[in-house]
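User: Could you go from structure to sequence for me? I need the amino acid at each position, not a summary. Structure tokens:
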């Protein structure tokens, strides 16, 4: 077990591959290419780059929303549970104002 800090509880240990980022909508907007494709679903950012070729609806369906919020469109076609199995979440989005 990990040592306990003086007077505190044991600190959680997270795998090194877990990312705890809080990208802004502006930062996500820059990820709008096939080799760097992120989308927003709800208040979460997802890196879809490696998933593009495997998307059952084709990569074009995702690329239409690269760097953007696709919550409404995603929710019309998918259950939110489906996204979790791909492990592509990058973090919770800060500054949830509209990106123009």
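Assistant: Here is the amino acid at each position, in order:
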């Amino acid at each position: 077990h990990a040592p306990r800090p003086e007077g505190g509880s044991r600190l959680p240990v997270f795998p090194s591959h877990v990312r705890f980022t809080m990208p802004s909508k502006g930062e996500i907007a820059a990820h709008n290419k096939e080799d760097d494709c992120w989308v927003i679903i709800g208040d979460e950012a997802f890196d879809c780059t490696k998933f593009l070729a495997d998307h059952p609806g084709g990569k074009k369906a995702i690329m239409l929303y690269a760097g953007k919020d696709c919550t409404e469109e995603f929710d019309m076609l998918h259950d939110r549970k489906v996204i979790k199995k791909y492990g592509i979440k990058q973090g919770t989005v800060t500054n949830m104002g509209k990106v123009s």
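One structural detail worth keeping in mind: The mean pLDDT is 80.
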